[in-house]
Amino acid sequence: MSTTALRSDPSTSFDSIEVSPLSIYIGAEIGGVDLTQPLPEEQVRDIRAALLKWRVVFFRDQHMNHAQHVAFARNFGELTPGHAVYGSDPDYPEIYSIAKNRTANAHHDQVLQRPWTGWHTDITAAINPPMASILRGDVVPPYGGDTQFTSLIEAYNALSAPMKKFVDELRGIHRNRPQEHVVQSKEYAEKITNRTLVSEHPIVRVHPETGERALYVGPSHLKSIVGLTPAESRGLLEILWEHIIQPKFTVRFKWEPGSVAFWDNRSVCHLAPRDILESDFERQSWRTTLVGDIPVGVDGRPSVSIEGDPILAI
Predict the structure, then answer these.
(1) pTM, two decimal places
(2) Distance between CA 223 and CA 220 in Å, rounded?
(3) Active-site hit among 83, 205, 270, 283
(4) How many CB atoms sit inside 10 A of residue 296's CB?
(5) CATH fold of 3-273+282-307, please?
(6) Which of 7, 45, 66, 120 is catalytic?
(7) Of 67, 144, 262, 274, whose CB neighbour count within 10 A is largest?
(8) Exactly one of 46, 48, 122, 175 is catalytic; which is it?
(9) In the annotation, is 181 catalytic?
(10) Over the range 21-32, which residues count as b (16 or more CB within 10 Å of their CB) and which as e?
(11) Contact yes or no for 172/201 (Cβ under 8 A)
(12) Is 270 annotated in the active site?
């Protein structure tokens, strides 16, 4: 049976959870679970299987506190510090605050806006980017503030055969530096300087669990392609960035209080909302991330750290 047929067949269900796909290639809502309570092994197994199949899964009406959020995340791996660069809550070091007016949004009006601006895979400047991220919404605007996700696996699958052959052999430099031409605060600049991360990753990453190939080109942190001239690098990156954000590869999630998004950071890019920055609505979410592995390319070569330490468990 083809992948498309499998995704469109409602009989492809899971035993212990309810899975409702939201688009052809990416995204599904999961029901029949209570994330505030310890989960039975079969639900942990099926949630993980749904994550691998749909890349990002969503839950509704899960009003977790920090301790419950951490406990749920631990079902799927070891937790990292809340944020490898910007720091964490001292009482819950596994939790990172995603607030409307956080430092990362302070100068959004200075950023050169391109179609792919803001799309990213979490912390790819690290040698071992997080395996997955789990974000819960506490304070949610009545409208606006949606998050978008795109499948880097389906984006790779849609490339032409010659382009696949070309990008399979390429490597890219990922760096956590501020946006160009943006004046940053002294506090933000110090955090970046004190925790600089630079890594060389394959442009095409092989998923360690499924063996699928993902176009590992998150725009926010990928700065150049190794071995190409600056003009060649920029031109190819813009082609790839425009490609991965095609609507057919994406799903858009509307938040409600108690909503949770759980995405596979090895195969997904996402875009945080910008519309709410032009409104009076508040928005407060909380995120955990799971320790990741070192990416490996089609040729079997692992990523290389150029600067900075791996993100370790706490």
Answers:
(1) 0.90
(2) 8
(3) 270
(4) 16
(5) Double-stranded beta-helix (3.60.130)
(6) 120
(7) 262
(8) 122
(9) no
(10) bbbebbbbbbee
(11) yes
(12) yes
